Amino acid sequence: MGLKKYYLKNKIEVGTDEAGRGCLAGPVVAAAVILPNNFKHPLLNDSKQLTEKQRNLVRPFIEENALAFKVSYVFEDTIDKINILQASILAMHKAIEKLQITPEHIIVDGNKFNAYKNIPHTTIVKGDAKFMSIAAASILAKTYRDEFMQKLDEEFPQYFWKKNKGYPTKQHRNAIREFGITNYHRKSFKLLPQQLKLEL
How is the cofactor bound (predicted)? Predict the structure, then answer.
């Protein structure tokens, strides 16, 4: 079962997806990708199905061969203000807005999206495993976010972000217990199971 090229034929269609929704720290990152009709790559799939090495192999191929792509970041302070779902949608809007080509249709991974300008959109559950442009967006969002967290790791090695990328691993939670939180942590998230004891 291969990935489909597009949801609507003969339309300039953009696929969009985000990475980092479930993290305790760092931005939520979204990508928007418009692919040419003849696009194919043997590894292209939902980023969660690929290893880090495979994602890093596919990413430059997507960047070189996409008709247009953009990546955008929404940071902790905004996530804390508007909530993670709205921040994820905002990141997708920002990525679409920066594209050099205006799409005629938007396909979105998941089941929630806010209308963007007057461009029709379709939400697709598990879209990153069904459509090429969403899969490509999921790979870009994930690799850009991972890179960002690896850079932050140099500043805050005690949280092991190089390894956990800000996700709620046991190691990450233990570090929060021991060292408290950084500016990069999302204060609206339940950072520890017993949040009440945490001195914020």
Answer: Manganese or magnesium. Binds 1 divalent metal ion per monomer in the absence of substrate. May bind a second metal ion after substrate binding.
